Amino acid sequence: MSTEENRPDGVVRTEVRSNVLVITLSRPEKLNALNANLFDGISAAYARYEADPDLRCALLRADGSSFSVGADLTVLPAMVEAGDEAADPDRFDPFGLEGRRLSKPVVAAVHGMCLAGGLEIALAADIIVAAEGTRLGQPEPVRGLFAFGGAVIRWQQRVGWGNAQRYLLTGDLLGVDEGHRIGLVQEVVPEDQLFDTAFGIAQRIADAAPLGVRYGLEVSRAAADQGFEAAVHLLVARRAEIVRTQDVAEGLQSFMERRPGRYVGR
Q: Do the domain assignments include residue 263?
């Protein structure tokens, strides 16, 4: 059973399928170019996702011919100025740079053009599934900018220094096969299989023990963002916590009984 909610501005839709929150960018007439309403809609959807313990994974996707071509350049200066003046520490930044950060995973399903800020929103997710024929890139340098939505950080985390600078400094676009080869995206599928493939991954994550997923994600992020020693310190603390949980006992019992685990997140 699913439920669906439409925002009044019509640019972001959310739908609950089982325990997965499907978040859809829906400004197809503008190729899902990012404006304030779209940005706020993603932020609100992430807040809903974080607050609901029954939602265990999110899938970020888009309507129309492209995932997103990046910021709407007609409103970008106003968006940047407004963002700098009114940063809210309790807000979920779709770029994952400021404010609150999701403690639960996001799978992004991208297609068509996935460029600039659109790609940076996908990179803020944890897994990217791409349709065949998708074009990826950070063309900001050829427009007098740099990829300040997080790509200058996340590209090198995902693909290494040289591969990152090859595209971050030139603004060249790359095809999805090259993106897959260097590790920017994790799977490439025919476009008519994109949703089912990405949702299948999200559902498998949602079916796993939520504390195991959350703690694993937290330690992995600490390793990427804070380094080895910080990650080890956090790992030891979370290990001591998780071995005492009801879900671990259920995991062992379900293994012995050869059945799926029934996890409750404690």
A: no
Which of 98, 80, 78, 79 is closest to 90 using CA atoms?
A: 98
Q: Is residue 47 part of a domain?
A: yes
Instruction: Give the whole-angstrom CA distance, residue 64 versus residue 43.
Output: 21
Residue 146 sits in the same domain as residue 232: no
Answer yes or no: do 111 and 216 share one domain: no
Q: What ranges make up the beta strands (E) of 147-216?
A: 173-175, 187-189
Q: Domain of 28: which CATH number?
A: 3.90.226.10
What is the pTM for the complete model shown?
A: 0.91
- pLDDT score at 3: 47
| Kind of pairing between the strands at 12-17 and 57-62 | unpaired
| Shared-domain flag, residues 34 and 92 | yes
Which tens digit of pLDDT belongs to each residue from 89-138? 889 999 999 999 999 999 999 999 999 999 999 999 999 999 999 999 99
User: What's the whole-number mean pLDDT along residues 203-226?
Assistant: 96
Please say whether the beta carbons of 24 and 62 come within 8 A. Answer: yes
